[in-house]
Amino acid sequence: MKHHHSKYFYMLASLATVLTLAMFTFAFVWLNTRSLVEPTFGVTFSWVYALQLGQDPVKMYQALVNDLGVRHVRLPLYWSEIERAQGEYDWAISDNLLAISEDRGVEVTLVTGMKVPRWPECYIPDWAESFNEDFQRQAVLAFIEESVIHYKGSSAIIRWQVENEPFFPYGECPSMSVVQFKERVDLVRSLDDRPIQVTVSGELGPWLDSAQAADILGISLYRQTWNDFFGYFMYPLTPEYYFFRASLVGEDVSQVVISELQAEPWFPEPIESRPLTQWYESFDVEMFNRNVKFAREVGVSEAYLWGSEWWYALKQAGDDRLWEAARDVFKTN
Prior knowledge:
By secondary structure, the chain is an alpha/beta fold. It is built from 13 helices and ten strands.
């Protein structure tokens, strides 16, 4: 009897092994024979970062559009910079950038909310910092409403992004509940009918919950990061990893795009701590081209490079190698 059960067990184990191998073989063949389309490349442009680098953000944006030929931009609105006093809005810089976009046929994903791209991630005005949670929630909603009303007449805007990686615990930010996030998404939907993009960490955390609130899912793609234990660290992930995860949320969104493709160093210390051109050693043209190639192999329709402000500042400092490498990317669009 014991022998019979042992034989039955081994038959089941063998069958499970065969099925598992067949599944992995199918997945391997599927991932490696899939047809890939050339992604449309754009940039995420932070006018706050441009100012931090000592540059004129409008001139920088003009150079990206007119010299490099960038035609797709993810553009954040910075609450703390636009509404320095409650109820008083200064749209001057973003107005200029949208005007250039409209004139040159640039397609813009406009990012609004409390948490938007670039460290410290959350841009809460000083006057709102002291508010309790409920008043701060109302203040965020008021800013989002004002920003959509102010810009929904722009022909350059193709979609809205609400918050940035809202549930990823990165940055100097208060936590955000699912209910609070949905409230902000619903508000934008009530004001305009353009698609809504939601973003997630491409390497860490779940995608599905965020995808269910979105029309378009944006993922970050970083190859090299820094931590105090390892120093610089390369993620041991392949393009197939991102493609497979994207395929799993395909029924929930119309597109998965790379909203942040690393194209500058991960700065482990303040950028001002060493001459700008020395940072090139941490992220050079070879790494730039390798990341672009990696993004092409992921198989998504759009990829927005992260670091265009730095390429421009390097160029102004006399080193145009990354600027020229980027030119080769955008001339294929």
